[in-house]
Design a protein that fits this description.
Strand content of chain B: 25-35%
Strand content of chain A: 15-25%
Distance between the termini of chain B: 59 Å
Oligomer: heterodimer
Mean pLDDT of chain B: 96
CATH topology of the domain at 377-464 and 610-758 in chain B: Aldehyde Oxidoreductase, domain 4
Largest sheet of chain A: 5 strands, mixed
Helix content of chain A: 25-40%
CATH architecture of the largest domain in chain A: Roll
Shape of chain B: globular
CATH superfamily of the domain at 377-464 and 610-758 in chain B: Aldehyde oxidase/xanthine dehydrogenase, molybdopterin binding domain
CATH class of the largest domain in chain A: Alpha Beta
Structural class of chain A: alpha+beta
Low-confidence stretches of chain B: 1-5
CATH class of the domain at 377-464 and 610-758 in chain B: Alpha Beta
Radius of gyration of chain B: 27 Å
Largest sheet of chain B: 8 strands, mixed
Number of strands of chain A: 5
Order of helices and strands of chain A: EEHEEEHHHH
Number of helices of chain B: 20
Chain lengths: 160, 763
């Protein structure tokens, strides 16, 4: 792979957290790079850059993806949601965010954005998911601090 | 030693407020090291050795220098030569020459991934591409890859010029950096009194701390000679005191700002990138940021050692341990300094052993230099000792918790390496586990589809640390306070420290606003590690808060034209001892600071020597598929004496997280090495850390035997929970299928092979 000169960058038209963006990206940039570097959405975290830790999880047209494994150009004309877009009105916390705080479901917090995006996608589809289902759904997100206990409990609390 | 009377009831301590930094972390606004963007900032990338052991013949940087966007290229020749002196950096002693050589090789590479050059360029991809253009000619040498290889006569030397120590005597031409011994009593006489003697040898491989955030650093070498560093570290002051002598600049010219840290577990105490970024910055005249990739994190940053451990233990028919011998052979990695010293002190710490000998060996191998990992060195030793204890219990027909209670160390006992225990809660936490609903509920021995179940227990010890901390509290005119601290918050310590100040000040936790600042903005504070932060920085906060109250009493005295000695403070209200009419709340008085003399700020600083050891015992039920050897953890309970749980949720979280890392260590995690010392599984796909799917809920039982040297009784909590799990899982596997696994991890193929061998159809 050679580095493309800046003149070969492309303009990516995509909707992020409900807002239309025109982002200047290189053809080889991942969606993760585009979100962090071009859009300044650093809530999307990089833990491994090969799709195994889930810290960069975002929602793409309602489906969760590891944004490090998606080319930025693939987001053209699509809807992206990151952790920054989870609070419904940008002010009031989503029940998952509130439950993560109340249940102490984060320690260092680096995996938290990915967990929140992934857990929200689950609860949007399956509001009554049981513990096994929650554990399976979240198995693509690594947390090294909590042992998952309080994360699972927080998701259950957010189910109401 | 300060002994402080325990208040009966607390208003803030023991409650579960939402942590102060929580909101930023759930909305994606918390700023971690990799998130930093500065005006003019460019990116760095490192060129790393593909060999574990090789001499550098030639480095050609010319192609990289001409690559698009490149603004600086450096090699070892650009790095100052550090003096070979040792400094304390928290849980480790760092030899500066080694620390410098580790982060940029000069003559020889001694581990795969060893940096040999670095570039800075306009963006990250340009830097990575340019780093690939650096040509290095190597003379490849035979690597030394195991403790046995390293100790064999005629073994290649990791460092030709290194002087080792053997029982205090200097040695040459060796890979054994150190061999030491702790001895008490007469082990031969002790074994002679034993009815049962068990001797076993155990083997472990390196495992990684596995923090999700890769190492990163940004540095700006300014034109006035001062250096600014922003980094993900457990200790900003440790970074400062390591970087200064490596770059040969005065400490005072360096300012280190710790950004949010995405996990550390000991692995972010050492420095890896900061001096490299600084030298690149000096050359480029711009701030330079480097973010490590995951492969480099695995290959070139702090795993904890593998190695070999031999344990021999005897007990008489009453169940008294009569003697024990432990030999610990730990991989140091490519530079001296494995945690074998701590391992040796912890190995027998849970038990009264009148006749004991512990030998430790710190052994150089061509692998990454090991770093602290949560109770460094203790888990390996506990795996071996707790397995042997389990065998003794079976031979004697004793309940494993009764045996451990019978032999448990308590106040006044002397550990094999010398220290006498102050008040500890070893007995109390063992009893709590014994009383747990889990332990009292018999295990159903068979699971579905012929799976076999077993139950295991193990005990564990970690010292916990005290060390130095400083806190400043600023009183705001609205009656709330700012709390300025130097302790990096990895898992909720802003809350646990603020809560201790709030308790003294009569405020709510939310009315104390903690902020973690740079090295110019607060007094010296040791790293967040050693389970010390809630203890020592909490103590500093307590002292600062006491000083605030003393200052506020003076202000009340000014208002009342009396004497500060005549002012009392209780439940947030200052009152006169002589005139019951004279009362003013903390908030009302805070609004009157200007008229009573001006702003009020007060500091507290401490060198906390009283840490109060931490003991924790774990109970695990496993289910094993005899067809595949796969082990599932189906129930887990951990009890621990934490002294006092300031914020119980985060105490439970530490216990659950430590247990989980231990379960990963027991069952899945390991470095796979090629015969040339290349790690073959340097991704999270192949280095298998536990996922949510691999675990049950983890029950944490908090036991509170107050630490008499802390105002609220805090002992510290973070490290003890990783000590017991590997041994507990090994014992549960034995209980389930009758095989004693002496190699970790206890992965399916090992379990299956052991089952087959037991059934006579092995090989």
């Amino acid at each position: 792979m050679t580095t493309a000169p800046a003149s070969q960058k492309i303009i990516l038209n995509t909707t992020v957290n409900g807002q239309e963006h025109q982002l200047l990206v290189a053809p080889y940039h991942s969606l993760l790079e585009a979100l962090r570097e071009a859009a300044g959405l650093t809530g999307v975290k990089e833990g491994c850059n090969d799709g195994n830790c889930g810290a960069c999880t975002v929602s793409l047209d309602g489906r969760i993806v590891d944004s490090c494994l998606v080319l930025a150009a693939e987001a053209e004309g699509r809807q992206v949601q990151t952790v920054e877009g989870i609070a419904p009105d940008g002010q009031t916390l989503h029940p998952l965010q509130q439950a993560f705080l109340e249940e102490a479901a984060l320690q260092c917090g680096i995996c938290t954005p990915g967990f929140l995006v992934a857990a929200k996608a689950l609860l949007d589809r399956e509001p009554d998911a049981d513990e096994d289902r929650i554990r399976l759904w979240l198995a693509g997100n690594l947390c090294r601090c909590t042992g998952y206990d309080k994360i699972i409990r927080a998701v259950q609390k957010a189910q109401g | 030693m300060t002994i402080i009377e325990q208040p009966k009831e607390y208003k803030v301590i023991g409650t579960r407020p939402i942590r102060h930094d929580g909101l930023d972390k759930v909305i994606g606004k918390a700023q971690y090291g990799a998130d930093l963007k500065l005006p003019g900032m460019i990116w760095g990338a490192l060129t790393r050795s593909p060999y574990a052991h090789a001499r550098i013949k030639r480095i050609d940087t010319s192609k990289a220098e001409q690559a698009p966007g490149v603004m600086a290229v450096i090699t070892g020749a650009d790095m100052p030569v550090a003096e070979a002196i040792e400094i304390e950096t928290g849980e480790e002693v760092t030899n500066l020459a080694h620390a410098s050589d580790k982060l940029m090789a000069r003559d020889k590479v001694v581990y795969k991934g060893h940096p040999v050059a670095a570039v800075a360029a306009a963006d990250q991809n340009a830097a990575i591409e340019a780093a690939r253009l650096i040509e290095v000619e190597y003379e490849v040498l035979q690597p030394v890859l195991t403790v046995d290889e390293a100790m064999a006569s005629g073994a290649p030397l990791v460092h030709e010029d290194y002087a080792g120590k053997d029982l205090g005597e200097e040695t040459r031409n060796t890979n054994v950096a150190d061999h030491f011994r702790h001895e008490t009593g007469d082990t031969a006489a002790g074994f002679a009194q034993a009815a049962v003697v068990v001797e076993r040898e155990f083997e472990l491989t390196m495992v990684h701390q596995g923090y999700i955030e890769p190492h990163n650093a940004t540095a700006l070498w300014k034109s006035d000679g001062k250096i600014e560093i922003w980094t993900s570290t457990q200790g900003a002051f440790g970074v400062r005191s390591s970087v200064a002598p490596i770059l040969r600049v005065p400490e005072t010219d360096i300012r280190v700002t710790p950004l949010e840290i995405g996990g550390g577990f000991g692995g972010k105490i050492p420095i890896y990138l900061e001096p490299v970024c600084a030298v690149l910055s000096k050359k480029a005249g711009r701030p330079v940021k480097v973010v490590m990739d995951r492969k480099s994190v695995f290959e070139a940053t702090g795993p904890t050692p593998g190695g070999r451990i031999r344990v021999k233990m005897g007990a008489n028919d009453k169940g008294d341990i009569t003697a024990a011998e432990v030999d610990l052979y730990y991989e140091a990695g490519a530079y001296p300094g494995s945690p074998v010293g701590a391992g040796a002190m912890c190995a027998l710490a849970c038990y009264r052993v009148a006749n004991a000998r512990v030998d430790g060996y710190d052994i150089l191998v061509n692998k990454p230099k090991t770093a602290a990992y949560r109770a460094p060195g203790a888990t390996q030793a506990a795996y071996a000792v707790e397995s042997v204890v389990d065998e003794i219990c079976q031979a004697l027909g004793m309940d494993p918790l009764d045996f451990r209670l019978h032999n448990a160390t308590r106040e006044g006992d002397r550990r094999a390496d010398g220290p006498v225990y102050p008040r500890i809660g070893n007995l109390e936490q063992l009893q709590a586990l014994k009383d747990s609903e889990h332990y009292r509920t018999p295990l159903e021995r068979e699971g579905a589809d012929g799976r076999l179940r077993g139950r295991g227990v193990a005990n564990g010890f970690w010292f916990n640390g005290g060390m130095q901390s400083c806190v400043t509290i600023n009183v705001n005119s609205d009656g709330e306070v700012g709390l300025v601290e130097g302790s990096v918050d990895i898992g909720g310590t802003r809350a646990s420290i603020a809560m201790q100040a709030a308790e003294v000040l009569g405020l709510r936790a939310e009315e104390v606003h903690p902020v973690v600042v740079d090295t110019d903005s607060v007094g010296y504070t040791d790293m967040t590690g050693g389970s010390r932060t809630t203890n020592a920085t909490g103590y500093a906060a307590y002292l600062a808060a006491q000083n605030v109250i003393a200052g506020m009493k003076e202000r009340a005295a000014i208002l009342w034209e009396s004497n500060a000695d005549d002012v009392e403070f209780e439940d947030g209200v200052f009152s006169s001892k002589h005139d019951s009419e004279l009362k003013v709340t903390f908030k009302e008085l805070a609004a009157k600071l200007t008229e009573t003399g001006g702003p009020l700020a007060a500091s507290g600083s401490i060198r906390q020597r009283g840490s109060g050891g931490g003991f924790g015992s774990h109970l695990v039920d496993v289910e094993i598929d005899p067809e595949t050897g796969k082990v599932d953890v189906i129930r887990y309970t951990a009890a621990q004496d934490v002294g006092k749980a300031i914020h119980p949720s985060y105490v439970e979280g530490q216990i659950q997280g430590g247990a989980t890392q231990g379960i990963g260590w027991a069952l899945n995690e390991e470095y796979f090495w090629s015969d040339q010392g290349v790690m073959e599984n340097s991704t999270f796909l192949d280095y298998r850390m536990p996922t949510a799917l691999d675990l049950p809920m983890i029950d944490a039982i908090i036991v509170e035997v107050p630490n008499p040297t802390h105002p609220f009784g805090v002992r510290g909590v973070g490290e003890t929970p990783i000590v017991a799990p590997v041994g507990a899982v090994a014992n549960a596997i034995h209980d389930a299928v009758g095989v004693r696994l002496t190699q970790a991890p206890m992965k399916p193929q090992r379990v299956l092979a052991a089952i087959k061998e037991k059934n006579g159809n092995g090989a």
